[in-house]
Amino acid sequence: MSAADVFRQQFGTDPEGLWAAPGRVNLIGEHTDYNEGYVLPFALPQRTVAAVGPAPAGEWTVCSTFADEPVSFGVTEPGAVTGWAGYVAGIVWSLQDAGFDVPGARIAIDSDVPLGSGLSSSAALESSVLTALIDLGGLDVPLERRPALAQRAENVYVGAPTGILDQSASIRCQEGRALFLDCRTYEIDQIPFDLAAEGLAILVINSNAPHQHVDGEYGARRKSCEEAAQILGVPALRDVTLDDLEDALGKLDDEVMRRRVRHIVTEDQRVLDTVELLRAGRTRDIGPLLTASHASMRDDFEITVPQVDIAVEAALAAGAYGARMTGGGFGGCVLALIDADRADQTVATVDAAYAKAAFTAPTSWIATAGPGATRI
Predict the structure, then answer these.
(1) What is the pLDDT of residues 22-54, one digit of tens each?
(2) CA 51: distance to chain centroid?
(3) In the 8-state DSSP scheme, what is residue 370?
(4) Alpha carbon distance 95, 99 (integer Å)
(5) Given the residues 5, 33, 140, 166, the one annotated as active site
(6) Domain assignment of residue 224, yes or no
(7) Closest Cα to residue 176, out of 368, 375, 362?
(8) Could you tell me which residue, 116 or 323, shows the higher pLDDT?
(9) pLDDT tens digits along 289-305
(10) Using CA atoms, how far apart are residues 134 and 129, in angstroms rounded to an integer?
């Protein structure tokens, strides 16, 4: 059943329109966003669709294909609406808090972005609803301002301490491009990313080891980075360069904090190096950077789990140019840069490794760079 079907079933009329926003894969640049560094995501073809129609002022009702009952709310404050509907209420609150006159709305949601997989289903939900409400109300919200509004909904209303990466990707990505984003200035550059033209592909492997962003581990990593920046006397870890790294590590007494800093500083440089290689048309050469990123997340940031480590190892054994976990960690997905004609062989190798380890079988597919949020 589509979002439009659910809307008709719940509200007895056609929606005024349909708006869609994608999930994302982060090619490289993990946990660098809240450290004001660099990221390089691209949007997935999988997306969340919001069927939306008007409602009386100050009234919002949301329903979906994955929830039994609709949720209604009026003018709201952070935390008042919980569960999946809290992301929708958070968008209403964020727009109102920014001074916008948000139109009342009836909203039906459908999504094929896998939940809990590290592909940012929450940002896809936020971005589709945000785009719909802006269009429905004729609100003057520049595109470059929208990711921060969606991020504020997640940070303040829902209570998840995420950075700006996910919402930026879901809103600002373009088809056939990777989004090079400076998370301090919000400046972007659309980097050509047409893998098929080079006989390459990105294989996404859902480890089926689900993760949660609203948990102590993600928050602990962010707190450790912020404390380290304070000790080092810099606004954010983005300000520590690779040349400065050894000196910076020498100023930190805590070994865990040193590992966290090392990951962020080296990961920022890996993003910059990846962008330069892609600009030069040397896509295969980014493989070692992807693999080094995974090793850093595993050893220094300590956010991987056995399922994703095995998926990376198996993909590399099958001939991938590089592979890494993508997303916040503690489960989720792996991406592997492969020759397009080796997809089946790579999937078979990963599946066999999972079976040997007695893990729940993974789910795999080829990802292509799609467009950001839009009316459809």
Answers:
(1) 999 999 999 999 999 999 999 998 899 999 999
(2) 22
(3) B
(4) 7
(5) 166
(6) yes
(7) 368
(8) 323
(9) 999 999 999 999 999 99
(10) 9
Residues 150, 225, single domain; the answer is no
Does one domain contain both 180 and 223?
Answer: no
* pLDDT for 90 beyond 70: yes
| Whether 13 and 157 share a structural domain | yes
**How many Å apart are CA 66 and CA 366, to the nearest integer?**
25
Residue 361 DSSP class: P
Residue 18 CA to residue 15 CA, distance in Å, equals 7
Same domain, yes or no: 132 and 265: no
Q: Count CB neighbours of 288 within 10 A.
A: 13
Q: Are residues 86 and 9 in the same domain?
A: yes
| Structure confidence at residue 162 (pLDDT) | 81
* Structural domains in the chain (count): 2
What does pTM read for this prediction? 0.89
The structure tokens listed for 186 are: 């919000």
Grouping H, G, I as helix, E, B as strand and the rest as coil, residue 116 is coil
Specify whether 166 is catalytic.
yes
* Local structure of 258: helix, strand or coil: helix
Q: What is the CA radius of gyration of the chain?
A: 21
Which residues contact residue 113 at a Cβ distance below 8 angstroms, ignoring those fewer than 6 apart?
Answer: 22, 23, 44, 46, 47, 48, 119, 120, 121, 124
Q: For residue 264, what is the domain's CATH number? A: 3.30.70.890
Check residue 214 and give its pLDDT: 42
Residue 129 lies in a domain: yes
What's the CA gap between 44 and 328, in Å, rounded? Answer: 17
Could you tell me the two tokens for 312? Answer: 């990376």
